[in-house]
Amino acid sequence: MSSYKPPYRSSLLVSLAVFILYIITLAPTTSWWDASEYIATGYGLGIPHPPGNPLFVTLARVWILLLTPLGLTVAVSVNLFAAFTSSVATGFFFLVSHRVLSGLFKQPRMIIIGAASGALLGATAYTVWNQSNVNEKVYTVSVAVIAAVSWLVLRWYDDQEGIMGQRSLLTAGYLMVLGSTNHLMSVLPAPALAAFVLVVGPAVLVN
User: Fold this and answer.
1) What are the TM regions of this chain, as residue ranges (predicted)?
2) Where are the alpha helices (DSSP H) in 5-162?
């Protein structure tokens, strides 16, 4: 079992900083393309264009209900949902970057700075930023799933024989399957995950 200790507090701060940035630049209403469709179906539990996105619709509806006391419009509420899920993804990507850099360098401060820089760079890339606060669709949920899966696989890597490590790997698989009901891009990590497991710890496949 690895002695690595994840910097969850720093991850939370990075996520919060990105969420605040997205709120400041949040679209005040809906935008072009599919954004209006997803906002409407999230509000009414409808079915977007085939094959549909049941996970997004369900999560968006719950989010709208949670924010109802704030008196926000449905469009703003769903835009905030995209901002929130994208900031969650940023937090997980920070953890992934930190874990990778920890295996390469020894200076804790430089590792934190490097991981934060990478996470913030990804969060402010044009396409990610646009999907997170203006052109809201289903993609930020899938990005959050991909980020979480990446982190869970690394947690398994650090504790392959332990119960928490095995649970992390199972949870990663579960999240990808669940994420496929949001958008099929959620299963993009599957080939890399399978290859990683085969190289690092193939015994887990027959356990």
Assistant:
1) 12-33, 63-96, 108-126, 138-157, 184-205
2) 8-24, 35-44, 54-67, 74-102, 108-123, 126-133, 139-158
